Amino acid sequence: MSEPFLIGDAMTGGYGKGPDILHGCTITAEKGEIAVIVGPNGAGKSTAMKALFGMLNVRTGAVRLDGVDITKLSPQERVVQGMGFVPQTHNIFTSMTVEENLEMGAFIRRDDFKDTMTQVYDLFPILKEKRNQAAGELSGGQRQQVAVGRALMTQPKVLMLDEPTAGVSPIVMDELFDRIIEVSRTGIPILMVEQNARQALEIADKAYVLVQGRNAHTGTGKELLADEDVRRSFLGG
Predict the structure, then answer these.
(1) Where are the beta strands (DSSP E) in 5-102?
(2) Taking the CB of residue 82, how many other CB atoms lie within 10 A of it?
(3) Which of 49, 103, 215, 227 is most buried (CB neighbours < 10 A)?
(4) pLDDT digits (tens, 9 = 90+) for 185-194
(5) Sign (positive/negative) of CA torsion 77, 83, 87, 91?
(6) Cα(19)–Cα(172) distance, integer angstroms
């Protein structure tokens, strides 16, 4: 059986010389799949994402992308290898225009990226409409679209989103999830950390519930939504 396209394999680690936050945690994502990480506050969800992106020390375990071991690579080197990462905060240049933000996303490319820009505008029509406006003047949901669009400009092999719907209204959350589904349909695996667990599980092909840095439950989104233990413990019944 072939290995998953992206795998954080039995990751144990933490920040700097601090204590371990992850304990043998395994996260995978396949092409065209939406994989979601949920769990209580302090469960290590964002830490697992950052471990995959090289922002903390993985003391044991490994991270592999498309068959290549990238465990020792820096975040910048992982971007070159094909990782697109959208952090929860400080993920756009507020004083630059929307279009300038997208152009910044193409910094590693040496080819003509106009076609990719067109694809991003097709995906997020509001960004085309506001392309000459300062990104800092946009609504929260529109800013998130800029952040995701900028990550797509690198033509990533995998897109990782850290709480993309944090602080946006339910209507905007639904719209963002619709756009995320559209991106996954292009074949790009999407790995997402989400506080809005129930809504995230509804669109998840695969889901992980983490508790104290460990895998507690794994299954399809529908399986975990139907799991009484998961519902009672993490979804409010």
Answers:
(1) 6-14, 22-29, 34-38, 57-65, 68-69, 83-86
(2) 18
(3) 49
(4) 999 999 999 9
(5) positive
(6) 37
